Amino acid sequence: MIQVKEAQKLILSQDLPSSTSKIPLQQAVGRILAQDINADRDSPPFDRVTMDGIAIQASRFSPEKYFFIENTQAAGQPPLTLSDPEHCLEVMTGAVLPLQTDCVIPYECVVIADGKARIDLSDVSAFQNIHGQGTDARKGDVLIPKGSTITAGMVGVMAAVGYTHVSVVSPPKVVVCATGDELVPVDQTPLPHQIRNSNSYMLQAALLALGIKADTVQIADDRDKLRDGLKKLVGNYDVLMFSGAVSKGKFDYLPEVLEELGLDKKIHGVAQRPGKPFLFGTVGKTLVFGFPGNPGSTLVCFHAYFKPWLRKYQGLAEKHLYATLTSDLVFKKPLTYHLLVTFEDKDSVLLASPVDHSGSGDLVHLGLADGFVSLPAGKDFWKAGSLVPLIRFD
Length: 394
Prior knowledge:
The chain has a six-stranded mixed beta sheet, with no helix packed on it. Strands 16-13-17-21-20-18 form a six-stranded mixed beta sheet, with helices on both faces. It has a five-stranded mixed β-barrel with strand order 22-25-24-26-28. It is elongated, with a radius of gyration of 31 Å. A hairpin with a 2-residue loop joins strand 8 and strand 9 (116-119). By secondary structure, it is α/β, with parallel strands linked by helices. The longest helix has 19 residues, at 295-313. The model has no long low-confidence stretch (mean pLDDT 92). 18% of the residues lie in helices and 31% in strands. The chain has four domains: 4-17 and 171-313, Molybdenum Cofactor Biosythetic Enzyme, Chain A, CATH 3.40.980; 20-43 and 136-169, Molybdopterin biosynthesis moea protein, domain 2, CATH 3.90.105; 48-131, Beta Complex (Molybdopterin biosynthesis moeA protein, domain 3); 321-392, MoeA, C-terminal, domain IV (Beta-clip, Beta Barrel). The protein is built from seven helices and 28 strands.
């Protein structure tokens, strides 16, 4: 068996050329940007009024002075011109600053009567309440860099600079393969010796949270059926993802069948709990992730191994989180211990509390966990308050 860090390093070394696609802007949230987004003009593109009020020349201000109102500058209209510097123009938020003015006074500080405005302030200054042209960006500036995860705010930026479609990293094509004669579809009532196929749904959901819509297949614990089924998948997907049949059980044919199909096995067995039988390799250009069948092992290995690989595939930097333990922990095995936890942010400190569960087959308590902390091998005791690596399930 190899150590967790070595396994992660091996997986991250497996390159799979990524591709890009151009999609409508409305579908872009959560995707990885494959191009720089540039400003098509200055932002804002004109001197913009930021308050409803009046526009004047600041140099003409004096307390108690009255300004005759020449006209009103509305948002969306071409700029008006103040014809007399002793006068003013009413202006609306978002409007172009009228020509020959350089100061906006909000209505709250103005008294208007008989077509004249008096400013109830002791002093004003040029460019107050004005969002200057090019203050935020100049034409050609990179507004959002390639490799960003697109948010709703970024969609707003892209729409503002005229992008109807945007180039994004295409997700890898993934199929989730469930094996096991004990599995029945979720809409069926299992016999006493059967269980519903929950792991496929769990992996599909975890992949969907990462922007990947995966296909699913279920193959019986039969060597010939497994071989025939896998032949149809290899080469048609970027990633084959298995749940179960990777251990040393009498019916765990998956490793042998994959080797018959040309598997270049990189990993089979990691010094960790849960997930010791984890399998990883390649068949041609297809990556194979073989997760042990217990749901805790499946989800932990997915987040510990597949998720970091996906970030690299997408061109994203590695992500490292840490949390503070809320209680003492003892684990006397020469293994990395992936411990299920819930966590809370308290006074800007992320606190991790162990989830009491009965092992990696305990799906009920797995569903209550927010993630897991990875306690490295070589240490038997961790004191409350220790800072440890954290992987979130979200």
